[in-house]
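Same chain as my last thread, 119 residues:
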Amino acid sequence: QVQLVESGGGLVQAGGSLRLSCAASETIFSISTSGWYRLAPGKERELVATITSAGATEYGESVKGRFTIFRDDAENALYLEMNALKPEDTAVYYCNADLPRGPITYHYWGQGTQVTVSS
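reply #2:
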């Protein structure tokens, strides 16, 4: 069972930056589509950014130009660099990896890390 552990969340003022990290217990990010999602109170889960095994990235409209997803395959780590943070970015951020194994895709999630942006 792959374990994903996020870190790097915290309290930051609007306009500030944070880098989230997601450490995997084994090789997964380089062989899956992985990403970051967030969940804010009263809202539905929102895609923040994804990266394919080939390195292609996609971003949610609300974070384009401000957030960057990248990974370190040697470290089995996934990152989310967040700049120009806004209060509306406040949410619990979850690391995800979707790993295809033949006809089945396994979905792995971390426990989440809280990001709070004060105005």
